[in-house]
## 1
Amino acid sequence: MNEQDYPQGTKIIEIKQETPTVKTVVFQREFNFKPGQFVMVWVPGLDEVPMSLSSKNSITIKDVGETTHALHAMKPSDKIGLRGPYGNGFSLKEKNILAVGGGFGTAPLKPLFKNTNIKWIIGARNKEELLFTEEIDTLICTDDGSKGEKAFVTVLADRELATGKYDLVISCGPEIMLKNLFKVCEQHNINAEFSLERYMKCGFGICGHCAMDPTGWMVCKDGPVANSKILRELKEFGEYTRDKKGEVTSL
Amino acid sequence: MNEQDYPQGTKIIEIKQETPTVKTVVFQREFNFKPGQFVMVWVPGLDEVPMSLSSKNSITIKDVGETTHALHAMKPSDKIGLRGPYGNGFSLKEKNILAVGGGFGTAPLKPLFKNTNIKWIIGARNKEELLFTEEIDTLICTDDGSKGEKAFVTVLADRELATGKYDLVISCGPEIMLKNLFKVCEQHNINAEFSLERYMKCGFGICGHCAMDPTGWMVCKDGPVANSKILRELKEFGEYTRDKKGEVTSL
Amino acid sequence: MLKTKLAGIKLKNPTVLCSGILGTSAAILKRVERNGAGALTLKSIGPQPREGHNNPTVIAYESGLLNAVGLSTPGYKNMEEEWKELQDIKIPVIASIYGGSIEEFVEIAEFVAEKKPSMIELNISCPNTKKHGQLFGFEPDVAGEVVSKVKAVSKVPIMPKLTPNTPKLKEVAKACEDAGADAIAAINTVGPGMIIDIETAKPILHFKTGGLSGPAIRPIAVRCVYDIYETVNIPILGMGGITNGKDAMEVLMAGANAVGIGSATYYRGIEAFSLVSQELETLMKEQGYTNIKEITGTAHE
Amino acid sequence: MLKTKLAGIKLKNPTVLCSGILGTSAAILKRVERNGAGALTLKSIGPQPREGHNNPTVIAYESGLLNAVGLSTPGYKNMEEEWKELQDIKIPVIASIYGGSIEEFVEIAEFVAEKKPSMIELNISCPNTKKHGQLFGFEPDVAGEVVSKVKAVSKVPIMPKLTPNTPKLKEVAKACEDAGADAIAAINTVGPGMIIDIETAKPILHFKTGGLSGPAIRPIAVRCVYDIYETVNIPILGMGGITNGKDAMEVLMAGANAVGIGSATYYRGIEAFSLVSQELETLMKEQGYTNIKEITGTAHE
Ligand SMILES: Cc1cc2nc3c(=O)[nH]c(=O)nc-3n(C[C@H](O)[C@H](O)[C@H](O)COP(=O)(O)OP(=O)(O)OC[C@H]3O[C@@H](n4cnc5c(N)ncnc54)[C@H](O)[C@@H]3O)c2cc1C
Ligand SMILES: Cc1cc2nc3c(=O)[nH]c(=O)nc-3n(C[C@H](O)[C@H](O)[C@H](O)COP(=O)(O)OP(=O)(O)OC[C@H]3O[C@@H](n4cnc5c(N)ncnc54)[C@H](O)[C@@H]3O)c2cc1C
Ligand SMILES: Cc1cc2nc3c(=O)[nH]c(=O)nc-3n(C[C@H](O)[C@H](O)[C@H](O)COP(=O)(O)O)c2cc1C
Ligand SMILES: Cc1cc2nc3c(=O)[nH]c(=O)nc-3n(C[C@H](O)[C@H](O)[C@H](O)COP(=O)(O)O)c2cc1C
Ligand code: FES
Ligand code: FES
């Protein structure tokens, strides 16, 4: 429950092309937020979608469909509506952290770039799609080897965790990647905090649309960040999701 | 605007017969209030009327009509509804105070009995109707001389004020009495704070029913206590009032 | 920049005192004028002297107000002194009237029109009496008949005030326009509602039920104004829960030419009129609007 | 002491999850069960798979919520897995259904009755789609026809859910009772309403308008339950803005036998069910009530 839970128009002040398919939209309104929290982003007349905050006044968007496409087409001084911030954010209780960003999943991790307790792994399909790697000291991998190591992030993570230096892995990215990364964490017996995605309507825990099986854990309110204990319980994690109608579809 | 501006039922815990026509009703709920403030008293199914608080959890009621009669007929553990406190209360900025209570008008002054800066004059039609005179050291007068001096309170007030010891007169009572008392105050050039009455509906300044001519001063919200500056402006003071329909009737 | 017009009547700003709020005497109306209102509506005037309901008649709950004042009125014939006093008022004064029959509406309108108010508002929407009011505003044909018959005897513009509590709102609005209404006021109170005291298990309002006003109803007011704007071409006085400049702008965007301020006086005092005007002006400057006309109806684009 | 009954169905406490709130999957319903609800209502199930409206579909304003979810549904034929999972639930489960025609209501009811829910709620009152729902609940004869036709094919009790947005509420309730309804649920959302973003001058909800729920509408819910209680003899599931034990008691006094908890989960989380129950129990003890039956309808005495 925020003071104001309906989207309020705000002006876009800058748009940055980050990769061929990812743009960062910087807006006027500033949020007091915890890294990992998200906002509901309203494109008037079209739709409203969840987006993690990549800074106090920006979101970083991958163009995947109608709404994200409309966001990519916007120009400074255009207006979007925002409400939030929602969700829990990363708890970061542990001190020796490995952060793993896959594709545009690096966006919600960006607010942690200044955290000196974190070692970074950033991966993407190819060199062009690597997000924010210029901005920090990070291990890099690509599926096609066009930059950094030719490997999945899970391979790098496995190697890092083997050093025994870490007590927490945080991550965001495609759910299949997260599922595999979680296996690695479990093998090394290291706690995980992963940011998940499910179809959202209300964003504040009343429509139930984002609830996951079998516990009814709600991504919008209890998440989007789930820790190992929760991930172990969520039988649908990495397996299936529910669409806009509420129908089950495999990932 | 109070936190809760609808009457809430509360239990009557004691009823005291003060005079043949006046009873004090003590209830469970306690108000944080300023002397001179009032509450709206709801008799379920009948009506709701304004009553000054005679203590943090009591009102002192003269039986004058249907609602006050019903209140007089109540017994401990019966329930009435209360909302408030409303109005301004006495400001008591000055230190040398003469308090004048006429008839049941002494009720709103009762919370000031412990104030040692106050000299008291209490009057009534006759001995039986003298209110609270046992409880404090006070000058007493009755219209019929059955106790104290046979005189109106204005006569005693005039004499007291002549001593030059006072810089404020506070009072509550029949409006004709207040009108005459105000003349006395003006003659002595001494500030007055009088508690007024007008027909009330909302009690919180939105229906306009209690507004006085010609300034639109609202008894419920700006009052019920008016000081000399305000009393001088109110051309209807001591002259006329408005009934439940809003029609003007002379006092 | 706050100037606006309602059926040809010029307002220095769009805030109009709603009927039934503070509208009982010339004295209090003048005080509202001094506090910056753009126009004033009198409390609804009826055929005969009427006490209205016993108290409690007005209460507040956590999201708004509930009232069942019951159309207390001195009666239209007993207000000569008040009419005289009202002559001093410089801003437009709107007379609100109600009747128990179409004939009564006509009779009062004819009498009141002679007093030369800037406009006559027809309260065909009051939910608080069993016989009077509400029914006239439920059905398009009845509403239209009241308007056309009153129109025939009145030299001043006529503005029916609609109830949100009918599924036929658009049809009623259209019927009013077709019958010659010069403007439409919307909305009267919502519901009705009831609050029960749990200690005594009794409905609190003496009339048991009362109409809702204040912040709770603002989305309903916005929707009604939006719907009416889509249906008619006459100007709209929008009201219902407007408490600050932002709310006022929202109702203007929905299609209003001026806005009623009622329950806001509970939340912000009589200062509500100047406060809402100031806040609206600030918002207009921020967003580059230069007059009210530019805002009216923009949500329909 | 919190036990109650609704059309013969036993509830351990009177709090019932409202349809459309958290009711999308068996998993979340089980979580509501663990949080102390007395019964659960599923999200309204419709004839065909339906996406509902685009977002924003649910927003909150200062006095309540506005929603226009648009009856998204996987369709009644695509829920086999869900029905299976629902078998684990120990408390009564109410299936809510809607149709675009009386035939659809009958078709779905017949299918759903086979799944043996404790009761079927007929959503004849949803304001959020242009074709479906609302119209059925506006007119007594139509409402009655839906109920009697569904009743003919259903072995489980039937509870039509009424809209507060018709002036004919009492008549609709009576028609439902006469047609064989086993209980009545009231109320569905109020209005509808609209909120416009003043920065973009656009209605915020994708459907533009949406129904009001939450604290704002409680007095309307209380009035409706009060009116229905005066009109019919079948039990009432009262809902609308109930957020705490005091609100629950108020709606019981108005005439309800059990209370729906919906928007309260926004204000108080899923814990709302156990919190309202606890608060109600405390109030009952304070006032000397020993069971819910003693409270139902006391405001009418
Ligand atoms: C908590 C959270 C944080 C997110 N953060 C980011 C981020 O920082 N950057 C980013 O680019 N993307 C983020 N996403 C994903 C983003 O919401 C979708 O990419 C976006 O909704 C796609 O919308 P579309 O209309 O462009 O695509 P569509 O063609 O409509 O859909 C493409 C995919 O997006 C999903 N989607 C559509 N609408 C919603 C919705 N209301 N809620 C959830 N998923 C939806 C669809 O289910 C589908 O899988 C986040 C999602 C969640 C749940
Ligand atoms: C601010 C204020 C404080 C008051 N404090 C006290 C007090 O401490 N003790 C006390 O005995 N009386 C007090 N009164 C007066 C009290 O409100 C009336 O005596 C009471 O309302 C009479 O109601 P009734 O039904 O018994 O009489 P009725 O026969 O109805 O009326 C008798 C008189 O009371 C007036 N009255 C009735 N209803 C109202 C109303 N809603 N608002 C104002 N006046 C009304 C009538 O105008 C009439 O003059 C106060 C009044 C006001 C305005
Ligand atoms: C105490 C009170 C009395 C009212 N009396 C009248 C009335 O006499 N005539 C009328 O047309 N409307 C009356 N109304 C309705 C208001 O004029 C207005 O339409 C409604 O309150 C919505 O606006 P608001 O939310 O700004 O108050 C009254 C409202 C209140 C709160
Ligand atoms: C987000 C949301 C979705 C709803 N969906 C449905 C629905 O599918 N079917 C239905 O009968 N009522 C639906 N309703 C109405 C509620 O069941 C309930 O009648 C209404 O919200 C009033 O109760 P409340 O104030 O406790 O929320 C919905 C309400 C909300 C807020
Ligand atoms: S999106 Fe509605 S509960 Fe999570
Ligand atoms: S009693 Fe309503 S304004 Fe004073």
## 2
Amino acid sequence: MNIKERKRDGIVILELSGKLMGGPDAASFDETLKTLLHEGSFNVIVDIGNISWINSTGLGILISGYSTVRKSGGEMKLLNVSDRIQSIFMVSKLHTVFKSYSDEEDAVKSFA
Amino acid sequence: MNIKERKRDGIVILELSGKLMGGPDAASFDETLKTLLHEGSFNVIVDIGNISWINSTGLGILISGYSTVRKSGGEMKLLNVSDRIQSIFMVSKLHTVFKSYSDEEDAVKSFA
Amino acid sequence: MKSTKSDIILKVPSKLLYLGVPDAVMMEMAGDLPFPVSDMEMLSTAVIEACTNSMEHGNGMNEDNFVEMHFSFLEDLVRVTVLDNGPGFDHESWVPPDDLMAQRGRGVKIMREFTDELIYDFADDGRFRLTLIKKMKPE
Amino acid sequence: MKSTKSDIILKVPSKLLYLGVPDAVMMEMAGDLPFPVSDMEMLSTAVIEACTNSMEHGNGMNEDNFVEMHFSFLEDLVRVTVLDNGPGFDHESWVPPDDLMAQRGRGVKIMREFTDELIYDFADDGRFRLTLIKKMKPE
Ligand SMILES: Nc1ncnc2c1ncn2[C@@H]1O[C@H](COP(=O)(O)OP(=O)(O)O)[C@@H](O)[C@H]1O
Ligand SMILES: Nc1ncnc2c1ncn2[C@@H]1O[C@H](COP(=O)(O)OP(=O)(O)O)[C@@H](O)[C@H]1O
């Protein structure tokens, strides 16, 4: 998994690519979020449009990140969830936890 | 390999997709061309932009098609040759045989 | 279900890096078989879970221990078996954590939901074997 | 060249349908390894030629005969061996047809051009084995 970081209207967008599957991915995602929170960025959009697949360990990474951001009073939302990943959210009932958007502007505006 | 057929300015464009690797591909490409020639379409553009890879048997199919069209007084040109396929043309010196284009309009105009 | 020889056999070391390989194999075959891509994706997701577990719980992430997979593409179903060198486990008695926010423990649930049949036994050579079967409706 | 265990082992029946599988494996690995994608593509193209030949000339397109491949991803090279059940052949003495428009006979030439080393021998069990090696410059 790779992470690219950019900002739009003050909201941080993390673009993930590759496979989200635990191992070293956990630490790199966690560190990225902690640095952002430390710098005062509490609202984060995670774009997973370029994630080819995710396993249950990868789900754990998203959940842990979500909790970390929440604890700091921020919010983490998802962008571009593929049908394949959406079906995994459904069977794990995580679609009730993660707010997700298919349009970047909508996602950014949702923080307003 | 799949073949879709369409026309632009009187020129037939065959859009190939999948893998070009001999076996049943040979007969289906050959029959498509023979039908076109029979119907009086002598100028053909073969768009291989959606061919993921080609092997040497697949090269043979293109060569055979090229010769068939030539014998009828027509011309067969290629469109959207990927870098991967171009490198195979180079080592087989077939880039000296096949005229290829990266722009559909240029390819169509070249028959004018 | 016809019993046939496996079509494809794949062996990879127990290293997360290789988890993408069975998925690449399944998705490559999905492109040529007359089955719905979403069904192949679900089965592949289940296979990734099985492999992750075989690497982690079965082979203890020891790279010298391979995970072996057999893929059978039949007329109306796809069957994948996953073998590891561990003690095995009874997935039927596994109760996933209740907590929606639990970080682990979802693999077996995903395998159950995304397959039609999930069978565990041991191969003749003693390796633990999980068989995942998904019925396919040709399109 | 370090001698290491193969990383990935793949077995497919002798059927053209399965030619895409080794390519899918190589390209999946290409996405994660620090090697130029074009080098991996060239090697994969050579491997497809080797498999096509093993299916056709080695195994006589008999689907009960498998083509077995071993992939080793080392620090500065990738090595792939391809095994079939046929009589084998000496690729060094093969002279490709001169005719630019010949329909066949380009496989060995493509393998030579797209690899750094091409070795043939027989495995301990008597199977014909072609080894394809391509040096890789980590990016
Ligand atoms: N191949 C296996 N060998 C041994 N134990 C396994 C295997 N697969 C799963 N298990 C056991 O089943 C439990 C549940 O697996 P799973 O639902 O995938 O959750 P997780 O792997 O996150 O713990 C694991 O914690 C492990 O104890
Ligand atoms: N695995 C193999 N086993 C036996 N003979 C082979 C094998 N691979 C190649 N050959 C021989 O080498 C020749 C040249 O192969 P190639 O250059 O790929 O051209 P083609 O397969 O189109 O004839 C083949 O015609 C065949 O006689």
